[in-house]
Amino acid sequence: MSPGNRLHRATPDTSPEPPQLEVVIEIPRGSFLKRGSTGKLDFISPFPCPFNYGSVDNYIGLEGDLLDAVVLGPRLQRGKRVTVHAVGAVGLTDRGMYDDKIICTTNPAFTGRRFPIVLFFRFYAKCKGILNFFRGRPGRNVCNGWCDASEAISRARPRKDTKWESPAIPF
Predict the structure, then answer these.
(1) Which of 72, 104, 137, 169 has the fewest CB atoms within 10 Å around its CB?
(2) Distance CA 27, CA 39 (A)
(3) Angle subtended at Cα 15 by Cα 86 and Cα 20, rounded to the nearest 5 degrees
(4) Where do the domains of the chain lie?
């Protein structure tokens, strides 16, 4: 073992605690029904959702919809509000519009398993591209990879309007 490795191991982790967010669950883990932030059914998936999927309803993402969030862990009931740690984010471009998906967990020490999350969103982007093609909605669909949760949150804007009803464009 090199001295650099020993020094690295002996150095305490001084990274800040991940940000905490309140997430409203829209799609429970295992569900085939893809709902948007308004609760409206968007599509029926041929595959079950591997995560709890929802939104942070006090932020608006870059595409004009509520900030998306994935909550890792056991299945949560639709409509449930949970306070979780934002441990990362995945960037997704849908119809040419960039959107962050905040990755959350109750465990602030989350360090791994990024690859399967990014792999899922790569597959999702391809499937969404096919769906958009048949819906006549042009634009590029791609997973942009993993990024820092704090950076992703800083790209969103705080929601000041308490009467927000839906995004300006249909998803």
Answers:
(1) 169
(2) 9
(3) 25
(4) 17-156
Catalogue the E-assigned strands of the chain: 20-27, 33-35, 41-44, 52-60, 66-71, 81-94, 97-105, 142-147, 157-158
Measure the CA–CA gap between 17 and 3, rounded to whole angstroms.
Answer: 28
- The SS3 call for residue 96 is coil
Give the whole-angstrom CA distance, residue 127 versus residue 85.
28
Q: Using one digit for the tens of pLDDT, what is the confidence trace for 35-72?
A: 877 788 888 888 899 999 999 999 999 988 899 999 99
Separation between Cα atoms, residue 38 and residue 36, nearest integer Å: 5
pLDDT digits (tens, 9 = 90+) for 1-22: 333 333 333 333 445 788 999 9
The token pair at 20 is: 């905490």
What's this model's pTM, rounded to 2 decimal places? 0.83
Q: Which of 142, 151, 171, 145 is nearest to 19 (CA)?
A: 151
* Rounded Cα distance, 146 and 54, in Å: 18
